């Protein structure tokens, strides 16, 4: 039992946290298939009672799913968890019957899911294969999720490390391994979820574990890494300080949270007593930057910083403190205009939650904008084209521009970082792009974006073929161009007919349009060419409808 719980004769402590483990099902281990994961969402109840063996007991209600819908399952657990403990197993059957009647999830869309007389209103994150908005387009509504764990409480998880958020963002973008240490599972899982959400709308392809324990099947492999061997790209959230010794080859360690589970507030580095809060009489005020040690030099602060770096993460074995240990040289500077807008709830816990919502909105908007601007230079390689006015949509669409990393970096160096990034990055900003190109996140994201762009281009050209006035088009073409157009229409028609056999209803409509276009193109061809074409029985059948 946690020694942090109050020493009353009988006390109860409830908490919510999450984990992620490799999918143990046989289908998930098929050679060549992408590794699958299960997401676990936990309602944990610890009951301290001196009369019980070991001084208490703990039980959990767990939801397992292949879908990382934290915003949904956390809400569901807040209903299901207490019901299971208060009513018993019948509550589980009752809630399960409601869940079984839910419609199929619609990723990226708001949904209203009934539970008895109530309803859960959630906005699901986009699907894993959804590329999200184009890299040059900033989403208009930052409250809409453009990646995983949009509901994570970013501000509460990293309040004591706000200045380090930009370094942490870089570590996530380039796919560096990170060990997140916290006093409790809720705090470490929330911090890992917050880190993953920082890089939206970038597809985060690195393995992450919101709550990692020695019982995880991957622990033995990681523990067996030889000294000097490079740690694989992973983000691990842990509470067991044993990992500081067993996984000491991880180059980036961040400690978050407060040892007191009853306090949701995490004070900034440098300390802030209740008497010196920014709010007066519980009223909210601005977070002061001098409390974040950004404006003011202090010899004591410098000595503490040097001492912290020299001691390394192992100092957490004796006392928990919020800190980041990393040899990574960051490029992005903390944005003081963003930090200045953050609101401090002062001494009033009553308004802490609403202030956190406001602060999360500010931080999410900024990092969404930062990531979108960082990805914007890749836009030309993902840009779709449509047929120009008066041209034939029956020619093959042009290919997307080829991508070569060296040419991209050289072109970027010549053009510059752009107005948004140049204000927020140091002179070594190109190094961040080089690391990103070489890291584990770039290629999966780029391939997905590229495939989406190619698919969108096919859709646009298909739509253009549906809208074209074939007779008007044919009247402008030479005899040779008319023959080429006839062959192209026939090719597209056969492709759509194949699609219609697989049940694509849209293809049936397209087929009817293309059959009419084929006959119209045939009617303007020379008589001898018509006779030659009709000598093919299959083609003759197409032309007869």
UniProtKB/TrEMBL annotation:
One Gene Ontology term of the molecular function aspect: guanyl-nucleotide exchange factor activity
Domain UDENN, chain residue ranges per copy: 1-448
Superkingdom, taxonomy of origin: Eukaryota
Any one of the GO CC terms: recycling endosome
Similarity field: Belongs to the DENND6 family.
Full protein name: UDENN domain-containing protein
């Amino acid at each position: 039992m946690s020694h942090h719980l109050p020493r009353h004769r009988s006390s109860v402590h409830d908490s919510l946290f999450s984990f992620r483990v490799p999918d143990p099902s046989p289908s998930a281990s098929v050679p060549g298939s992408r590794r699958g994961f299960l997401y676990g969402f936990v309602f944990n109840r610890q009951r301290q009672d001196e009369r019980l063996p070991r001084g208490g007991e703990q039980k959990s209600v767990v939801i397992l799913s292949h879908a990382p819908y934290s915003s949904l399952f956390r809400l569901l657990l807040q209903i299901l968890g207490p019901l299971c403990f208060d009513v018993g197993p019948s509550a589980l059957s009752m809630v399960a019957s409601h869940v079984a009647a839910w419609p199929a999830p619609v990723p990226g869309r708001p949904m209203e899911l009934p539970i008895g007389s109530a309803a859960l209103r959630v906005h699901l994150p986009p699907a894993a294969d959804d590329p999200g908005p184009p890299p040059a387009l900033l989403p208009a509504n930052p409250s809409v999720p453009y990646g995983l764990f949009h509901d994570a409480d970013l501000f509460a998880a990293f309040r004591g490390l706000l200045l380090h958020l930009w370094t942490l963002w870089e570590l996530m973008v380039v796919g560096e391994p990170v060990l997140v240490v916290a006093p409790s599972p809720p705090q470490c899982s929330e911090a890992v979820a917050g880190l993953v959400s920082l890089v939206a709308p970038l597809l985060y392809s690195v393995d992450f574990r919101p709550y990692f324990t020695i019982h995880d099947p991957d622990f033995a492999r990681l523990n067996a890494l030889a000294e000097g061997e490079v740690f694989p790209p992973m983000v691990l959230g842990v509470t067991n300080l044993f990992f500081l010794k067993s996984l000491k080859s991880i180059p980036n360690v961040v400690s978050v949270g407060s040892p007191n589970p009853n306090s949701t507030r995490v004070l900034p580095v440098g300390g802030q007593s209740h008497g010196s809060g920014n709010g007066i009489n519980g009223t909210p005020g601005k977070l002061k930057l001098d409390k974040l040690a950004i404006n003011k030099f202090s010899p004591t602060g410098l000595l503490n910083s040097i001492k912290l770096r020299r001691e390394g993460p192992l100092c957490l074995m004796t006392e928990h403190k919020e800190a980041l240990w990393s040899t990574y040289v960051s490029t992005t500077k903390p944005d003081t205009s963003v930090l200045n807008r953050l609101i401090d709830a002062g001494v009033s816990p009553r308004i802490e939650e609403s202030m956190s919502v406001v602060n999360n909105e500010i931080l999410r908007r900024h990092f969404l904008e930062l990531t979108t601007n960082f990805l914007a230079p890749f836009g030309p390689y993902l840009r779709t084209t449509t047929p120009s006015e008066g041209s034939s949509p029956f020619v093959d669409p042009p290919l997307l521009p080829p991508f070569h990393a060296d040419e991209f970096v050289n072109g970027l160096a010549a053009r510059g970082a752009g107005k948004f990034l140049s204000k927020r990055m140091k002179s070594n900003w190109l190094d961040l792009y080089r690391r990103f190109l070489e890291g584990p996140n770039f290629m999966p994201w780029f391939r997905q974006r590229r495939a989406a762009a190619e698919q969108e281009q096919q859709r646009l050209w298909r739509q253009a073929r549906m809208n074209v006035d074939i007779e008007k088009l044919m009247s402008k073409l030479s005899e040779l161009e008319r023959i080429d157009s006839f062959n192209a229409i026939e090719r597209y028609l056969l492709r759509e007919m194949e699609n219609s056999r697989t049940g694509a209803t849209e293809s049936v409509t397209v087929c009817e349009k293309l059959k009419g276009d084929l006959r119209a193109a045939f009617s303007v061809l020379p008589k001898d060419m018509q006779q030659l074409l009709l000598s093919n029985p299959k083609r003759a059948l197409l032309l007869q409808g």
